[in-house]
Amino acid sequence: MITRRGFAARIGAAVAAGRMLPEMAYAQRAMIQGDLPKDMVWLNANENPLGPPQSSLAAMADVLSAAGRYHYQEVRDFYAALARSEDLQPENIVAGCGSSELLHAAVEAFTAPDRPLIVMHPTYEGPPEVARAMHRQVIQVPLLPDYSADVRKIAEAADKIHAGLIYMCNPNNPTASITPKAEVAWLVANLPPDNVLLIDEAYIHFGESKELETALPYVRQAKNVVVARTFSKIYGMAGVRAGFVCARPELIERMRPFRNNVLSIIAIRAVLAALAESRTLLPERRATNARIRGELCAWLRERKLPYIDTQANFMMIDVGRNAREFIAKMPPMGVAVGRPFPPLDNMLRVTIGTDPEMQKFRDVFWRVYRG
To answer: Can you list the domains of the chain with their CATH numbers?
Structure first.
């Protein structure tokens, strides 16, 4: 695994590094061009290779013929089911097109020209890119040497500049690292007045560490905390586009005007079917991911290849040189991995796929690594 030594130097000088265009950050497959093998293995977008559960596939197929209508009458029951799944009330929930739409809504609702956004760095680019597009100031706070959020510096910066919103991804993307529950608790307890903490839990279902804990209890306590969830990852429905955020009603009402008011009936039915079997589905999928992820970690350790300890369905591997050229060599050989993530210039991000996919990844990775 990656040690703390040298991390500060790697991060510190690159806080102001150039950023990628939003469409490049989101359109993962479109970035990979050329004459690609027909049996490409796609490990570049943190997707779940298991796809939607069979119950969701059946539910989507069943409703397709009725997809010519909006089905507003089903939204109330849908919100009630989402709320029950997290031990909340419907007024604590707003749903959208994946969690991305709602992260954007939070930026619009809680930042302003004089109320900046604060983010850990590096992290998921969506919220800071939206803020910059709106001409809002973005303050990047480098990760600590253990790749967790520096909550004390975040709180200090938020208080000093009168920030409007703090964005924390936990587990973090692209590092797959976590911010321990005690640190999150400290930040919630020390939030400056009128500041909102947005915690993106897209990957939380994959985590196994006892130090990783959902922030939903703070929502139930009516704190200034918004928790984002998605059905794109462990539920395997990235293309269905369904997500939601949880917060106290006043915060939900501030966000609501900034999201689309029409939710796809196909997504609604898929989500309801998946929620109905979540008690068995989630543990099974978590266990599958953990087993395959653990096998890759063991393979890397055997070859003395450093990596960041992972609590997600992807991981970062230190290839010992600038990863950009390394990453570019893999698609023609049949494997696509994540784009470069400055300032982690030597790191390659790979999604955890199926057993055959990870075997092909190991074969191609090793050939490229050995030159």
So the answer is: 7-50+280-370 (3.90.1150.10), 54-277 (3.40.640.10)
